[in-house]
Amino acid sequence: MAFWARHPHIEYLNVAPNHFTPRNGWFTSEQPDNFLPNLRHLRAHWNDVLLLAPILSQLLSLSIHESINAQIPYLLRSVLPDGLPNLKSLNIGQAPTSSSNIENIEGGLWYETKNGVFFKRTADRAWSNVFDLFMHSIVRATPNLEEIGFHGSNFPLSDFVSTAEPAY
Question: Which of 33, 38, 43, 71 has the fewest CB atoms within 10 Å distance of its CB?
């Protein structure tokens, strides 16, 4: 944390995992007041993004790596009830899973209906992806979004086109 305290002027931060860096663990659950006050662009592992939830509202762009199921809608709608109205760009790295320990993964079973009601799936129906009660949560939480991207899963373009109906 001392490094971050000595560098409060950071505007762009890329601590996304790759073959040479840690998967996560760049931050702790306790950040000092006025933590990274100039940060506007963040690329990071899901776990680090979740730890930084208190400062995410200041971001213009966010790239989340290695999320599972609907963890990103969970972050944007449940952890951050006001969403991220200033966000202009969102990049989602997501892997649908139904692993045996999904019940222990925060947000792994969460979902929102098209009517805006929050639920928790049962473990036997855990698997979800961007086409399964997902995009309407993103739309509600990021009303000023201008750009969205997906990485980590192979989805054909036709699947995205078929989800382009209005969310409300």
Answer: 33
